[in-house]
Write a structure and sequence with these properties.
The protein is mainly β. It has a single domain, classed as Lipocalin (Beta Barrel). It is 9% helix and 54% strand. It contains one helix and ten strands; from the N terminus they run H-E-E-E-E-E-E-E-E-E-E. A ten-stranded antiparallel β-barrel has the order 1-2-3-4-5-6-7-8-9-10. Strand 4 and strand 5 form a beta hairpin. The N and C termini lie far apart (49 Å).
Length: 153
């Protein structure tokens, strides 16, 4: 019975964002890649260190870089964790960590135009699903980015 209670407490603690740290997202570290319809997307994440993970992505189409993004996951002094994205030279946007599980993390910013949620999910087969979702022009919208782990070149 004591073992079951410990398992349940651990599960609840990992589900809510309270108490989560950047270290809890170490499974995101590494290099990820996808190819879809002539577009090639690479996303690289550094290991957590100094309460920060740094990431970047690049999208290639027709032999040219058509999009890029600089990303940070930071743990603030008060314990809040944020995903901060700056896509293709635009102004950066922060998304607060709202849910973390052993293989999934959800960041949200309800005030942002689109997306309002950024999700990363490590799949059972070791692949990574990145997903952005939220309301756009009055309709719920989602975009998936399935990626495979690859060598960091």
């Amino acid at each position: 019975m004591r073992r079951l209670a410990l398992i349940l407490c651990t599960s609840v603690a990992l589900t809510s964002a309270g108490g989560a740290t950047v270290e809890d997202l170490a499974w995101l570290h590494g290099c990820w890649h996808s190819t879809d319809g002539g577009r090639e997307v690479s996303e690289h994440w550094m290991k957590p260190k100094g309460k920060t993970m740094l990431g970047l992505s690049r999208t290639i189409a027709g032999g040219k870089t058509v999009a890029h993004e600089f990303m940070r996951i930071v743990e603030e002094e008060n314990g809040d964790v944020f995903f901060i994205a700056q896509p293709s030279g635009q102004k950066e946007t922060s998304f607060k960590l709202v849910t973390v599980k052993s293989r999934e993390v959800v960041f949200a910013n309800p005030a942002h135009d689109f997306p309002q949620r950024v999700i990363y999910r490590l799949q059972e087969d070791g692949s990574l699903l990145g997903r952005i979702e939220g309301m756009s022009k009055g309709k719920e919208r989602a975009v998936d980015f399935p990626m495979q782990k690859t060598r960091c070149d």
